[in-house]
Amino acid sequence: MHDRSNGTRATTAAARSSRGTHPNAGASSAAPTAARPSRGGRAATAEVAGIRITSARRVIDAASGIRKLDLVRYYERIAPWLLPQLRDRPVSLVRAPQGVGGETFFQRHIGRVPFPGVTQHEGLDPGHPPLLTIDTLEALIVVAQMDAIELHTWNAHATDIERPDRVVFDLDPDPELGWDRMIEAALLTRATLADLGLESFCKTSGGKGLHVVVPLTPEVGWDDAKAFSRALAHHLAASRPTQFSATAGAEHRRKKVFIDYLRNARGASTAVAYGVRARPGMGVSVPLTWGEVPQTTGGAQWTLANIDARLADCGDADPWAGYGRVRQRLSAALTARLESDAGDAAP
Ligand code: ATP
Ligand code: MN
């Protein structure tokens, strides 16, 4: 799964022993390349993976003091884990040219400025400009150079765009709710899916909540995937009304977890696993094993400031090991079962 095909220059021992520890440390030629800040304060340039990084020393998050080069180097380090999440999935970028807290641009297409290396898919979204995919280390570093902090991916691959290969449940806690209730909600979502014979995977959002991802063998279309996810969300809200709401709006989820299924429509996207958030502190969306979920403390538990320790703890172990081996499909029967069960006791 790891990307070894990008012509990164040989990594020096010094670069490798720097803070760039990641789950694949030392095993990939995509390890940190020499970044060479030039002289001259905030405007210094650097080179990462062969891409010129401008304003490398500019602080992009006042809350943490994170600089643009820190973000770019993180994306370089994490590429062996991140690229498999990005490759061939249409992506939306959240660019923040003035840094966190400044104006952001949610971008699904290339605008006036070209993104060298980013793949454009003409005709994939009829009536719209080409959708974009980030398929290489170069493309990843290019978008980071262009101030893209967040990367949000579709639930399908460009090569099979009408058949989603996952559904995502976005769990958003009411701000008054304790995190322990969020953990319960995530475990209950997992158990309900498991009851239907569906395996799921959990990650922090890097923001306020958790995302539960259900891998699918691409088979049914967008409408069926959305109908299933809607039925599951409504089933949870009906069977556990004190815990879940499936209705948008703060007034509906007071002291509850809002389970959002709308990420499952064609064209919707979700913050990518291992991606950074353009919010104060710069949270990272971190894949977890289900066994780790009860020990979590928040959706932004990991940030650019502490992600390296997390990655070092994981070593070579993939928290989502097994994801690629899952073979499961949705069916009208599953959706019908949820709809007829709505209101019955959940597991
Ligand atoms: P949290 O845990 O804090 O809820 P999240 O990733 O679950 O974080 P948001 O950051 O609120 O939720 O993002 C919601 C989704 O809406 C994103 O995945 C993205 O696809 C979409 N989105 C975000 N910003 C925009 C925008 N400006 N225009 C269109 N869609 C957007
Ligand atoms: Mn959310």
Number of strands: 16
Spatial strand arrangement across the major sheet: 13-14-10-12-11-16
CATH superfamily, by name, is DNA primase, PRIM domain
Counted by DSSP, the helix tally is 7
Mean of all residue-level pLDDT scores: 88
Number of domains in the coordinates? Answer: 1
The ligands bound in this entry are: adenosine-5'-triphosphate, manganese (II) ion
Backbone CA Rg: 20 Å
Contiguous low-pLDDT stretches (5 residues minimum) are 1-38
Strand content: 15-25%
Written as H for each helix and E for each strand, in order along the chain, the element string is: HEEEEHEEEEHEEHEEHEEEEHH
Described by strand count, sense and barrel closure, the largest sheet is: 6 strands, mixed
General shape: globular
Cα end-to-end separation:
35 Å
The quaternary structure here is single chain
CATH T-level topology: DNA primase, PRIM domain
Secondary-structure class: alpha+beta
Detailed description of the structure:
The protein has a single domain, classed as DNA primase, PRIM domain (Alpha-Beta Complex), CATH 3.90.920. Helices cover 24% and strands 17% of the residues. The protein has helices at residues 13-16, 68-86, 137-145, 179-195, 222-239, 307-314, 332-341, and strands spanning 46-48, 51-53, 59-61, 66-67, 91-95, 105-107, 119-121, 131-133, 148-153, 166-173, 201-204, 210-215, 244-245, 257-260, 270-271, 287-288. Strand 1 (46-48) and strand 2 (51-53) form a beta hairpin. Helix 2 (68-86) packs antiparallel against helix 3 (137-145). The longest helix is centred in the first third of the chain and has 19 residues, at 68-86. It binds adenosine-5'-triphosphate (ATP) and manganese (II) ion (MN). The site of manganese (II) ion has 4 residues, from strand 10.
